[in-house]
Amino acid sequence: MLVSAPIAETIPRVRLGWLNGPLFDLTFIIGIAALAGVISGMTVLSPALFIPMLTVHTWLFGYEHLIATYTSLLGRPEDRARHRRLTLYVPPLVLIGLFCIGQVYGLRGLYVLYFFGQFHHTVRQSWGLAQQYRHQASGLTWDSVRLSEVTIWSVPVWGLLHRCAQQPSEFLYQPFGLPYVPTAIVNVAGVLSCALWLYWIFTRVTAYRRGELAVGHTLYMLSHLSIYLGSYLLIDELCSGWLLVNVWHNVQYIIFVWMHNRKRFARGVETDTRALSWLSQPGIRRTVLYFSATIALALPIYYLLPQLGLRLDELFTGVAVPAAMTIGLTLTFHHYIVDAIIWKRRRIADHP
Questions:
Q1: C-beta separation of 270 from 84 below 8 A
Q2: Confidence band (pLDDT; 50, 70, 90) for 346?
Q3: Do residues 104 and 321 touch, judged by C-beta distance below 8 A?
Q4: Are 256 and 129 in contact (CB under 8 A)?
Q5: Count of CA atoms in the C-beta half-sphere (13 A) of 90
Q6: N or C: which end of the chain has fewer CB within 10 A?
Q7: 8 Å CB contact between 29 and 143
């Protein structure tokens, strides 16, 4: 049935604000969240599946998301020159710092440091992606950036306080502990977070009525809400909750960097970055080869790091923690530091 012009003018309109089109963005927002939910959910239904699911996640998404970082860090000659200090000087400093923490606090200290570092890193990435969707929707001038940031952080902080109140004693099969937080503080954080998200829903309803609702940004915020509610509050088991947010974060990062490489090599193959620029060209075949290459590049890390760690453990006696673990965490924390710096630099360059 045809809609008359006066009636059609009163129907609310929306702004899509996609990063790369509806198919990509719906897969990026809903598909990745669903994948993380399935992997984590299987471990909730059957705890015996945690090791198999962790293995699948590690092989397909774990170190591959570290490799994705280095395509931005080392992809072009100018990238290597610009980030030379981050490449050469930061890893040994991180290694020394982790070694010292391991000597003083042991494995427990390193796992607690990783837990808090991963928490900050994943929430920060989520906020950065929300900002990408905000930019695609022309800035959302009606929506306070600072209030949006507080809203995004509110559920993760509530969830982290909840985990502290739970006082878990084990994480990834290792001794673990978090600072104690009274339940009253957790409840206050929950009330504040619920109030912020209720106000956020109200602003989206009114934006829809004005014809200013940004679909991409709204869907992404809802996916963030559901992931952190599930991982820190609804899933009681610490490791299954950690797996949910970790899969979501890693797959997001891999796909986002792939999209970034597609865009920066959109003009074609570059002679000084031939392999990466060739893999980043359009087409299903190139896409399959791109992700196969990230897995292939990560394979030596899976094999060589444990071997190197065992050799070092044989060489040095009396160390507080296994060397392989310290080296692996060095790569992880180097990724956290590098990721924070290079993407911040890129945002400044893109939006001076």
A1: no
A2: low
A3: no
A4: yes
A5: 17
A6: N
A7: no
pLDDT of residue 4: 43
CB 313 within 8 A of CB 73: no
Asked whether the CA dihedral 341, 343, 346, 348 is positive or negative, the reply is negative
Query: Is the pTM higher than 0.85?
Result: yes
CA 131/CA 17 separation, integer angstroms: 11
Q: How confident is the model at residue 350 (pLDDT cuts 50, 70, 90)?
A: very low
Say if residues 163 and 195 touch (Cβ distance below 8 Å).
Answer: no
Of 25, 17, 10, the C-alpha closest to 211 is 10
Report the pLDDT value the prediction gives residue 43, as an integer from 0 to 100.
96
Sequence-separated contacts (24+) of 200-203 with Cβ below 8 Å: 200/148, 200/151, 203/142, 203/143
Instruction: Give me the half-sphere count of Cα atoms (radius 13 Å) on the Cβ side of residue 154.
Output: 23
